[in-house]
Amino acid sequence: MPVMIVTGASRGIGAATARIAAANGWDVCINYLSDRASAESVAADVRAAGRRALIAQADVADEHAICRMFRVVDEELGRVSALVNNAAFTGSGRRRVDQMKAADVNAVLSANVTGTIVCSREAILRMSTQHGGQGGAIVNVSSASSRIGAPNLWMDYAASKGAVDALTFGLAAEVAADGIRVNAVRPGLIDTDIHQKTGIADRLERTVKNIPMKRAGTAEEVGEAIVWLASPAASYVSGSILDIAGGR
Ligand code: NAP
Q1: Of 45, 47, 87, which Cα lies nearest the Cα of 66?
Q2: CB of 240 closer than 6 A to ligand 1?
Q3: Would you state the pLDDT for residue 195?
């Protein structure tokens, strides 16, 4: 069975992706940072769909932890054929650039940019036909903030997602001849826990009025697109970024 690693799969978009992937025939590695109970609940749903599930705690900002996770996947599930770089760190609270500290910015970049690169490297080493692999797919989870910039909110996070967009284009070209497709989804406002970290209690309600569809999206609406991009049905799609933002 094909094996997918989803980073940040205990909650939100990652959890929905893991469940939809299982329904579409994937065995799934459910990575998480600290919420083991939620990861176990996702794993139970994957198994209920008849697929194998592996739970892997690893901070995507920690290179050694990432390498360990990929080795455990090799041993327990077999060679990975899809990676979803979904885990991300927003930083805490809303902030302006004139308040930012370098260490806090680096923490955001470390998880979102370096983490995406290191996870992709480990996946490429296993998927690439140049390394004896059979090809595969990488799907990055960017954000509409890469186009909007998130002023007065979390511009460092938005900048990290701009980097994810650039990585999607560059990596797609770099590994196309290795049998690996690389794409991204760029969600707009999606109803998940992530918004609690802004410190604006009613952020979802306030932002909805700027969205042409006048509603937030669901994690499942993003997960469906991720699983499609990872699947053979998207076999000629690479270097694409799919906006999932209700027309925003
Ligand atoms: P969420 O509901 O807050 O879930 C975040 C997930 O990532 C959790 O499973 C969390 O694990 C995990 N995680 C966080 N930091 C991690 C780290 N350093 N290492 C490993 N796992 C980590 O977030 P979400 O809204 O689903 O966001 C998922 C992705 O969508 C992110 O890339 C985000 O930037 C992007 N996005 C979201 C929105 C939106 O409106 N929700 C919009 C645009 C883009 P624990 O459960 O263990 O904490």
Answers
A1: 87
A2: no
A3: 87
Candidates 231, 100, 112; CA nearest to 164 is 112
| Residue 198 reports pLDDT greater than 80 | no
**Closest by CA position to 222, among listed 30, 86, 80, 27:** 86
Average pLDDT over residues 100-126: 98
Nearest CA to ligand 1 atom 18: 59
> 17 CB less than 6 Å from ligand 1?
no
SS3 (DSSP) at 216 = coil
* All structural domains of the chain: 3-244 (3.40.50.720)
3-state secondary structure string across 20-49:
HHHHCCCEEEEEECCCHHHHHHHHHHHHHC
Ligand 1 atom at minimal distance to the Cα of residue 87: 7
Report which secondary-structure segment, H or E, holds 53: strand 53-57
Among 69, 86, 226, name the best residue to mutate to test ligand 1's pocket (greatest count of ligand atoms within 8 A of Cβ). 86
Quick check: 197 pLDDT over 80?
Answer: no
Residue 229 to residues 79, 162, 240, Cα–Cα distance (Å): 19, 20, 9
- Please compute the mean of the pLDDT values over residues 10-26 and round it to a whole number: 98
**Per-residue pLDDT tens over the stretch 21-36:** 999 999 999 999 999 9
- Using one digit for the tens of pLDDT, what is the confidence trace for 127-149? 999 999 999 999 999 999 999 99
Rounded Cα gap, residues 157 and 87, in angstroms? 12
* Whether residue 5 has its Cβ less than 6 Å from ligand 1: no
Atom of ligand 1 nearest to the CA of 36: 47
